[in-house]
């Protein structure tokens, strides 16, 4: 049964990640209205009979999201029964179920009622939290069933807060990126590193929205570089922290590269989806490091 739980957890994490990417597909193919203003039905039908591309994309997204919801609940209930005394697991089971439900409700609200760009951007942010919590629950399950010992690093309280603040800041930047997309500002700047030939464009414009996001994202790269240097100097023996930080940095670099390619390819869909994939992996990796770093308190007290 333990093996089944592990495989179920891996499958659940993959399906939730697929939901995030399919949500990006819906947004970037203009398929948000593919099922009209009805939810959970699609144009009043359980399975739509129309063969329009936008309808198939939106319906597929809803179907996969429904499957993800079932898997998340099953994984959460199973984990609670299997590990009733692990506080981390209890917290992640509640988080994973809460965010997958919230994500679905926000998606439904966006379909039934016209939503602002701010709310639509928040929908993507919630989907990241949903994937991160599901992935962390999966890691915790593997830690209990497969790992020989718990991952408890010996790092300072200051470094722990560094990761917490970095994750919070990164979430804000990711939200700004979703806001860029939902305000049709993705091509507000048509070149890089300058914006339409200017180093600082008019901030009260689509170019300005894109420029602000670029600036905020650039600070993440600098912040991560400084963090990596500190970890290499002081905590290079803390493998989970070091490797997690390096993976997060790799993801954010790939995210930046794909973002530049999105601009020069004029929003080619494969690069847009890659951009969403890298930002999702980056944030999930960062939350993993935060979870591990917070355990320092358990070790010292």
Descriptive keywords:
mainly alpha; single chain; Heme A synthase; cell membrane; iron; 9 helices; 301 residues; disordered C terminus; heme biosynthesis
Structural notes for this entry:
There is one protein chain. By secondary structure, the protein is an all-alpha fold. It is built from nine helices and no strands. α1 (2-28) crosses α8 (269-293), α3 (87-112) runs antiparallel to α4 (117-145) and α6 packs antiparallel against α7 (239-264). It is flat.
Strand content: under 5%
Cα-to-Cα separation, first versus last residue: 34 Å
Broad shape: flat
Biggest beta sheet summary: none
Helix/strand order? HHHHHHHHH
Specify the number of helices.
Answer: 9
Protein structure class = mainly alpha
Give the fraction of residues assigned to helices: over 70%
What layout of secondary structure does this protein have?
Elements: H1 2-28, H2 53-82, H3 87-112, H4 117-145, H5 157-182, H6 206-234, H7 239-264, H8 269-293, H9 296-300
Helix pairs in contact: 1-2, 1-4, 1-8, 2-3, 3-4, 4-5, 4-8, 5-6, 5-8, 6-7, 7-8
Main location: membrane
Keywords: Cell membrane, Disulfide bond, Heme biosynthesis, Iron, Membrane, Metal-binding, Oxidoreductase, Transmembrane, Transmembrane helix
Transmembrane segments: 7-26, 63-81, 93-114, 120-142, 163-180, 211-233, 240-265, 271-294
């Amino acid at each position: 049964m333990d093996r089944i739980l592990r495989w179920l957890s891996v499958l659940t994490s993959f399906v939730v990640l697929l939901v995030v990417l399919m949500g990006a597909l819906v947004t970037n193919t203009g398929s948000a209205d593919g099922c009209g203003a009805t939810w959970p039905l699609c144009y009043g039908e359980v399975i739509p009979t129309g063969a329009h591309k936008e309808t198939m994309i939106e319906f597929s997204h809803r179907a996969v999201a429904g499957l993800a919801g079932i898997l998340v609940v099953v994984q959460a209930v199973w984990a609670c029964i299997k590990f009733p005394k692990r506080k981390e697991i209890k917290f992640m089971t509640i988080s994973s179920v809460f965010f997958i439900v919230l994500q679905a409700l926000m998606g439904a609200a966006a379909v039934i009622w016209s939503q602002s760009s701010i709310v639509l951007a928040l929908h993507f942010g919630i989907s990241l939290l949903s994937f991160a919590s599901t992935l962390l629950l999966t890691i915790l399950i593997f830690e209990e069933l497969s790992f020989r010992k718990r991952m408890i690093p010996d790092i300072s309280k200051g470094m722990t807060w560094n990761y917490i603040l970095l994750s919070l800041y990164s979430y804000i930047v990711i939200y700004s990126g979703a806001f860029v997309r939902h305000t049709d500002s993705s091509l507000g700047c048509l070149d890089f590193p300058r914006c339409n030939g200017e180093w600082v464009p008019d901030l009260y414009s689509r170019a300005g929205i894109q420029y602000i996001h670029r600036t905020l994202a650039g600070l993440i790269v600098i912040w991560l570089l400084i963090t990596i240097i500190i970890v290499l100097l002081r905590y290079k023996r803390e493998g989970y922290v070091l490797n997690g930080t390096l993976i997060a940095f790799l993801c954010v670099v790939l995210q930046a590269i794909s973002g530049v390619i999105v601009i020069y390819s004029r929003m080619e869909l494969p690069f847009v989806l890659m951009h969403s994939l890298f930002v999702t992996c980056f944030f999930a990796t960062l939350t993993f490091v935060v979870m591990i770093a917070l355990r320092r308190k358990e070790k010292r007290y």
